[in-house]
Structure formats: C-alpha cells, structure tokens
Amino acid sequence: MSENMNEIKSQSAEELKKKADATGAKALEILIEEEAEGVVAEFPNSGALLEAAEKIRNAGYKRFEVYSPFPIHGMDDAMGLKQSPLGFIVFAAGSIGCIGALLLQWWTSAVDYPVVYSGKPLFALPAFIPITFELTVILCGFTAVVGMFALNRMPRFYHPMFYSENFSKKAGDDGFFAAIFVWDEKFNVREVKQFFQNIGGKNIEIIHRPLEAELAQQN
Amino acid sequence: MSAENFKLTGESKFGVIALGVGVAGVAASVAGLFIDHKTFYFAYLVAFMFWMAIALGGLFFTLIHHLVGAEWSIVIRRIPETLASAIPMMAILFIPIVLGMHDLYEWSHEEAVAHDELLKHKSAWLNPMWFTIRAYIYFGIWTFIAWTLYKASLDQDGGKDVTEKMRSVSAPSMIVFALSITAAAFDWLMSLDPHWFSTIFGVYFFAGSWWTTLACVVLLSMYLRGKSKLGEVMTIEHYHDLGKLMFGFTVFWTYIAFSQFMLIWYGNIPEETIWYKHRWEHGWQYVSMFLFIGHFVLPFLVLIFRASKRSFTVMKIVASWFLLMEFVDLYWLIMPTFTIVNPDAHHGLHFSWQHLTTFVGIGGLFLWFVWNRLTSASIVPVGDPRIEASIHLKNA
Amino acid sequence: MSMETATLKQEHRNGHHHVYVPEPELINDKPRFKTITDIISGVPEGKMPRLWWILFGISFALMAMYLAVITYLIWKGIGIWGNNTTVGWAWDITNFVWWVGIGHAGTLISAVLFLFRQKWRTSINRFSEAMTIFAVICAGMFPLIHMGRIWHAYWFLPLPNSMQMWVNFRSPLMWDVFAISTYLSVSIMFWYVGLIPDLATMRDRAKPGIRKTLLGLFSLGWRGGNRQWRHYERAYMILAGLSTPLVLSVHTIVSFDFATSVIPGWHTTIFPPYFVAGAIFSGFAMVMTLVIITYWMFPQIKQIINERHIDNMNKIIMVTGMMVGYAYGCEFFIAWYSGNPYEASIFIKRATGPYWWAYWSMITCNVIIPQIFWIKSMRTNLAVSFIVSIFVNIGMWFERFVITVTSLSQDYLPSSWKYFNPTIYDVACFVGSIGLFMTLFLLFLRYMPMVAMSEVKGVLPHANPHHPDHELNGHGNGHAHEQHRAEKVAELATKNGGR
C-alpha cells in the first residue's frame, strides 16, 4: 500500500493563525505536531537501516517506509513485504502477446486475403515464429514498465517526504532514511520521535508542509 | 574445512548396484549383438552418445566454471569434474562402434562409395581409418583436459594453490574442446546420413549435451545430499541457479534447433529437407512433436516460475524428465537413419529391448566409474579459496 | 576499510585460515557513496572539456553532411549509390548489419551480464545501453533510405493496403521490421527505467530552474523507498530476462534475411548464432572505443571504469572473436564437405577472388589481431585496447561486406556477375552515420549520468547490509537467516579444527 495523500487533513491559513495566536510562544511547535504528515529519521548505513526496518515492523507500525540510494538486499523480508506481483502480470501480458500475434498472422495470411508466397503454406507456422516472439517480448516489456509505474504510483511529483530538506539533499546520494506516516493507526508524533531515538535514528524530523513560511505570509 | 569432512558418510550401495546393473546390461547387450547385430549397433550408438553427452557436458561445465571464475558453482564443481573424468572409460566403450562401423555408417561401405559421387568426394574425410584415428584424437584431447583439471582440483583439496593454473589450462582447452566436440558430432551423428550437412550441427549436439549434464548434476547432488555433508553447503540457492541455467539452456537448445529447422524449411533445398522429411513420416512425426513439446514447451512452462526452481521435488522431476528427453533427442537423431544402411528394414519407429540393455549396460558402468571417483575424494572442493562465498550464495 | 581486511575478519570469525585471494577491486579507491554521486553527476553539471567541443564539432558537421546527403538521396533515388542490378544489397545493408550488431553489446552488458551477476557491468552498462539505442537508430536509417521511397515506409505496418491486401508475414524483411522496432523500444525502456533513480539524484542536486524541472519531470517523483525499489528491481529483472532472448532474436532475424535464401554463402544453418557472436564482438569493440574516448575527455571516470573493466571487455572481445573464427571454419569445412560446387566455389572466391582484400582484412582484424589479448599486459594497455578495438570495428564491417557483396556479385549465373564499386554517396552515408552516432553519444555524455550511480553504489562492498565493516560504523549484522548459516559453517569447520 502506498501512502495516501487524500488522508492528509488540511487547515485553512486563517484557522492556523487563530490557533497560533491562542497558544502563544510554542505555537509553531504545536502546529507542526498537529499538521505532521509523518516522522523521518536518518540511519548511518544500509545495515542499520535493515535493523531499523525490522524493529519498526516489530513495533507494530504498518504505514512506514525506508529510503535508500540503492535497493538493499533482504529489506523486503525485514519490512515483511511479499514478492512483487509484477512477474505474473507480465506473464499474462506475454501470453496475450503470443496468442494475439499468432491470430493476427493467421487471420491476415490464411483467412482474410490468402496469397501464396514462395511456395509456403498459408499458415506457415515456422515463418510466423519470429513475429510472434517479438510481439510477445514487446508486450511483456511495456507491461513490465507500465506495471511497475502503476504499482509504484508513478509519476507522482508531490510527496510529503520532499518537505524534508535533509531528505531531499541526501536520499539520492548517500542517505538512509526511515519514515513512519501519519496515516498509520498507531501514529503519535511524540511516541514515534521517541521510538526513532531509541532505535538509533539521527536527524529526526517531523514532516510537515512549510508552516513557518505560511505563517510569516499571514502575519 | 577439510576434505575428510565432505566424504561420503551415509551407507550407499549405489556403486555396487551400478556395477551389477552395468555388467548385467553388458551381458544382455552381448546377447543382443548375436541375436540382431544391426539393431544392436544402433541401440548401442544411442546409448553411448547419451552417456558421452553427459561426460562432455561435465567437461564443459568445468571449463566454463574456471574461465569465468564462477563463485556460486564451486560447491558443486566436483560433480561435473567427476563426470568428465569418466571420458577414458568411454573411449574403451567406443570400441564396439569402431567394430560395428559397417552396420552404422553408409560411407564405410566400399561398394556404396564407388557408386556415389558425393560419398567419393567425402571419402577423404569419411573413411574407416581416419574416422577411428580422429575419434581417438578426440578422446585423447578430452581425457587430457578432464584429468588435468580433475587432478588439479584434488591437489587443491590438499592445499595446493592451483586457481590460476586451472584457469590458464581452461582457456586454450575451451578452444580445443569447441572444435573437437563439433567434429565428433559431425563424425558420429551427422555422417549417419552422409549426404546431409548442417553447419550448426555441432552446436546442436553441444546444447543438448550441457542441458543434460545440468540435469544429471541436479540428480546426483540430490542423492549425495542424503549421504554426505553436501546438503549442508549446497542449498536451495544453488538449485535455483542450476534451475535458471536449465531454463536458459532449454531456450538455447530450442533456439539452435529452431534455427536449423527454420533455415532448412525456408530454403527448401531437397538435399537438406530430406533429413527432416525422414523425421516427419512413418510415425516419426509423433516423435518430432513429442521432442518439441518435451524438450521445450514443458520444461519452459515449468521452469519459468521461480517457485519451481526453488522446490527440491519439482527440480528432481524436471531433471529426470530432461534425461528422458535427451534420450528421445538422440533416438530421433540416430534411429531414422537405420534404413540408410538397412534399406529393406521397415521405415517406422524401432522399439527394441536392445535400447534398454545397451542403455543400462553403458550407464551402469559409467555411473559405477563416476561413483567410485566421487567417493574416493571429497564431494566438495574444500580447498577452493572462495568456497565460503559459494556456500553463502543468495538469490535476489 | 578495505574489502580484504573485511573478508579476512569474516574468515577469522568463522575460524578459517584460508589463503585469501582478494577479488580485484571493482572501483578504485573504495569510494564513499557520495564520491560516486559527485563524480558522475559532476560531468553533466560541469563544463565540457575542450576535447568534447572538438569532437562534437566534427561529429555535428558529419551529421549535417549526412542529413544533406540523405535529402539528396531521397530526392534523386538510390541510383546515386554504387548498387547495381547484380549487387542489389551493398554498403546499405552492410552498414545496417554493422550498426545493429554494435548495439548488441549494450544489451549483453545490461541484461546478460546482469543475469550472470557480473557486478563489474554496473560501471559500463548505462554507457553501453545508450550506445545500443544510438546504434539501432543509425541502423534503422539504412533500410529506410534504401527503400528509395521513404514516404511509403508505413507499408511495413500490418495494415491492409488499398486492395485490402496485408503485408507478407512470411517475409524475413517483415520480421526485421518487428525485430528492430521491438529492440529499439525495449532498449529505450530498459535504459529509461535504469535512469529514473539517477535522474532523481540529479534532480535533488540541481538548482531550481528549467534543468531541475525537466529532471523532476523525467524522474517521475522517484523517492527511493523500498516499496518502490521492490517493484523496480522486479521490473529490471524482467526486462533483463526479456532482453536476453531478444538480443539473440534480433541478430538471428537479421541473419535470416540472408540465410533463408538459397544464395551460396548465405544459406547455412550456423548463421544465427554466428551473427549473434559477431554482433557482440563488434559491440564490445565499440564500447571499448567509446570508453577510451571518454577517458580522454573525463579522466575522473577512471575511478569508476578501471583496468579491470578494460581487461574483462578485452577477454570478451577475444572469446567472441574466436566464436566468429569458429563459424568461419565451420562454414569453410561444410562448403567442402557438402560437396555442393556452388557453395565451395563461393568460399574459394571469397578468399582468392576479386574481393580477396576484403576477406583477408576480415580474417586479420577479427581472428588474428585479437589474439594479442592472450597476453595480460596487452589486455590492460589502453593504447593497445584502443587500436585493437578499431581493428575489430573495421573487421566486422568487412565481414558484413564480404557476406553481402561477394555472394551477390557471383552467384549461380556467371553472365550476370558484376563487381561492386562504391560511389562517394555510399561513403558519405556511412561516414555520416558515424557522425550521427557520435553526436548523439556526446550529447548523452553532456546531459545524462553516464554511469548508473545507484547500481554502482549497490555493488560496493559496504552497500551490503551484512558487510562487517561498515564505512560509518560497525553494526549491521542483523539478518537471522544469514547468521544461522554462517554459524553452521563455522560449526562444521571447528569440528575438524580448522585447516
């Protein structure tokens, strides 16, 4: 399951301001906690991230994600993810491509307008194999790519994670991050922050939209 | 790790049974020779080529393993090495083919050559003397390569550093191997139909040969798992990799077989198409179709799934099926030529009890030899410096 | 921490004292992940060196000439080429097969070597995939312009014509259309899928502006979460699995163009695997040429593509060169063995007839010269590698020329035998296509990450979560299953007291 943007609650700027006024000095902090979309923590390396993933899972969180600049072996097991279903989808597409190609060649060559070329039979199976193969492959290929995009909900240009400057700077480079999101049933900002601290996370941050800027604009 | 640790531990009567079956098979085959020598030699050639294919595949496995510096296959390396070490025994078992040449190869009939322009043209290559000498040149080459590598591998168990040596022996050996297996396939199989020719034929035989060896390695290692500590170092990951290779070479064999068929079918030149015509009439068309389904479609559909490659049971069944299909393949290559040297015989399928006797005769002796070698040394090449990594193999 | 000490520690832990043979370093200096990002992203972010501009100028000029010549060709018709009634296929098909063949190495590196877990491929796969795409584009141009009436190219699509007739699916040329277009599409998809994480990395590094916007657009919002990697890796594996038979099929089908006919020297069953081996051979030579040219422009890349890669590629060049030699030998032997006088005659004529120079250039460049790579010091010598790669490129062009032209110029009917002479337009089209190829390649270096960053990072020793000496600190041995097996081996070992 991918994180769902629709669940993020949004407050109008006016409401925000009202609350900020009411609570005084620590207004921003409280606001941030209220508006949190998740908590992110950084880990030093792939091994630590793998351990962290296992611990997060064991703690009962479900809506969490780990981020790394390259895929980490064994992470699927650690997170308790099943194997990607992509293989089966592609196999089905390939079967359609294979049968479709044979049907196309059979119908055009032997049924719709039969012409004998170079003494070959109308339904010349050996001569139809190359195109059958190519159409199978291209259908598989398209399905693999499009299927991967669909399963990954791509393209998706906005995601709360990008609010974190540290994440944006390092995620594609050499940073290893874990995040637990607000749409997890067990989510509680302070608890999650504490939890990350306990399992060795660094640079723990609450993910939120740029409230500072919004407030400044209001004032 | 020491070599002793990976010797056979469990009780096994495999060697004794193999020898017994082999001797009985040979005895029955000898009886067959006297009852019907024409059928005997053909049956013998099919059986011989079957076990020879496994031995040659073992040699190829060893060579390619050293050449690419493969890591995953180290724990199973000893099995193909040992399969290849049986080549000198196969050289002895080749003698009946030399003796029975007249019953197998039309080009060995002087009167046929005298009346046939093409055979006359080819007699510089296809004549009994040169054929025999060539065969023993091949055996000499293969024995030399196989035993050099096998002995080096045993030395490695004893702590000698031979990694580089094995690699440098393998490089030139691979060239000689490629040329000799091609020539052997031309000589022993293609020349059964002496008018026919196909440049890809050597590759075709090789493709089937390695394909079968992979299956043989799977089956032998499955048996050895229960009898030694092999089971502790050879995990499902290794079978997964073997399964991938089996899948890949199912496709490769099909690719080569299809290339040959397609080009001959499309070119439609009578002197070439006759070979396929022989295999598409008098009941042979069913064997041809069975070969296509059994050698390609079924293994393809089963092995394409990850789960099958990671199941001991499925792998065992598929590997046994491979052995059956290689036999069918060789039967299909060899038996339709029976009527070339026996024009009066009927053209259909030749099922004979002699196929069974020769198969178990040669097979029994082959397996007995292999078993003896396997049990006299460590089943895992414990001296390889990278054995650890091989044991820890993990598939993505 | 080096890999060596790491493994030694591991061995010590398990109670072993093997002679440790360190694997040659994949990447020089065991860089941190960041170094890789900096080196690779640094190239398109920085200024292009003078040599880049010089090469680009030359390539661009050639490409411009190419476009001009093609325009003229389409205007006048292909009569301006040297093709004649006997030799209907000449440089055009030679160039087509040559370019398609070159493309094959890219797929081999990205797909086949991936399936065989050859980690060293990660340093050169992006590079060669790009090369594949550009080579296939160059290849596709030749059949198109050879048609003469290029505006009828759509007749190749499976559409009924004005008389309700369909295309002939039994024709090898039709198979070619499907094979080449499938190959191009799958290669582009494979390349693009591989690029996504790297584009995201570059997006994160870019300053706001049009570049960042474009990078953001094409990286599709990639974040590198494991749930994404999971499907991504599966897709990558499937594409690799598809590309492997695909690459075989493409040159096989190209070989069918020749071998399904009954022209002597064309109709032989070894053609499919022989063409594939030749394709990989020429493709690796081209990758080598390009790698070394890239070294001259961007020396910093030597940290990532090092001697070991050059060595491995040269080995593959040598092996595939010998496969090609094997096929030459088989063909020659069977030409004699078959007793077919036409077959025998064409092979003798190839070696001694009017095209002897082409035949012996082919043998020299493809079979003899690569033998120098038996010597290890030659395999890692850049100058030697560069020269040999050029020879192989030339030799493989001659191979296709020998196959196409010698067989056609002297087939069954001596009265129609004709010698082929190229015209200036033949040469211009060929040289121009190299200009197109190089222009595309240089633009690729200018704008794209030339090495797959995420893949290179993924194969570094410290990328492994179980790597005992993590670059930053030491915890990380977390996987229960893995530990269990390690213990088992240790137990086995201690039982007999180590060795």
Secondary-structure blueprint of this entry?
The complex is a heterotrimer of chains A (219), B (396) and C (499).
Chain A: H1 13-23, H2 27-35, E1 38-43, H3 46-58, E2 64-67, H4 75-79, H5 86-112, H6 125-151, H7 165-170, E3 176-181, H8 189-198, E4 202-207, H9 211-218
Antiparallel strand pairs in A: 1-3, 1-4, 2-3
Helix pairs in contact in A: 1-2, 5-6
Chain B: H1 14-35, H2 37-68, H3 78-85, H4 87-93, H5 95-99, H6 101-104, H7 110-114, H8 117-122, H9 128-157, H10 163-188, H11 201-227, H12 230-233, H13 236-267, H14 270-278, H15 284-303, H16 306-309, H17 312-334, H18 338-341, H19 353-376, H20 387-391
Chain C: H1 3-13, H2 33-45, H3 50-76, H4 91-115, H5 125-146, H6 172-205, H7 210-218, H8 226-259, H9 271-297, H10 307-337, H11 341-352, H12 356-368, H13 376-379, H14 382-409, H15 424-447, H16 453-459, H17 480-495
Helix pairs in contact in C: 3-15, 4-5, 4-8, 4-9, 4-14, 5-6, 5-15, 6-7, 6-8, 8-9, 9-10, 9-14, 11-12, 12-14
Query: Taking all residues together, what is the mean pLDDT of chain B?
Result: 87
Rg of chain B, Å, rounded: 21 Å
Largest interface summary: A-C, 76 and 84 residues
Beta-strand residue fraction of chain B? under 5%
Keywords, separated by commas or semicolons:
heterotrimer; B: 75% helix; globular; C: 499 residues; mainly alpha; disordered C terminus
